[in-house]
Amino acid sequence: MSTYSLKTIQHIPIDISQAWDFFSDPANLQAITPDNMGFHIISKHHGNKMYAGQLIEYKVKPVLNFPIYWMTEITQVADKQYFIDEQRFGPYRLWHHQHHFKEIDGGVQMTDIVHYRNPLGIIGNIANTLFVQKQLRNIFEYRFKKVEELFGKWDGQQPNALEFGKAA
């Protein structure tokens, strides 16, 4: 069974408070997720801002339009620096997603680091090769474009936008 990772880096021409206010509000996640994922927050009492211990429930349709229940917990938060969500129930055997924010000259550098493991052992590894990695790439590329639409394009050179890896 393999653990996979991905890392995205995006420079956004806004200040750290704007970035934090947008990305730490669970309701905004739907705006930066592709429509074909059928992503909807279904939890009723998750609050408006990220906090450690927060549970957020979703319905997603990642494969063949089949709805899947997904629950994540916000396990760590450092105001205007980072937050981490981890899957408690859902499609992955492991999902650990770090969201980092750093002030840079002219804006914010946003870095996402995801470690994930698919269920079903070797079948999950094959699924990763056939479609999971591609789907995650599409989701994060879509997110990159939506963030540019919402906040503007970075005026300088963007760093590497998306890197995939595999842990030993």
Helix and strand layout, with pairings?
Blueprint: E1 4-12, H1 16-23, E2 40-41, E3 54-63, E4 66-78, E5 82-89, E6 94-104, E7 107-117, H2 121-151, E8 162-166
Antiparallel strand pairs: 1-7, 1-8, 2-3, 3-4, 4-5, 5-6, 6-7
Rg, please?
16 Å
Class by SSE composition: alpha+beta
Which descriptor suits the 3D outline? globular
Mean pLDDT: 91
Order of helices and strands: EHEEEEEEHE
- Enumerate the spans where pLDDT stays under 50 for 5 or more consecutive residues: none
What is the spatial order of strands in the main beta sheet? Answer: 2-3-4-5-6-7-1-8
| DSSP strand tally | 8
How far the N terminus sits from the C terminus, by CA atoms, comes to 10 Å
Amount of beta strand: 35-45%
Helix content: 10-25%
How many helices? The count is 2
Biggest sheet architecture? 8 strands, antiparallel
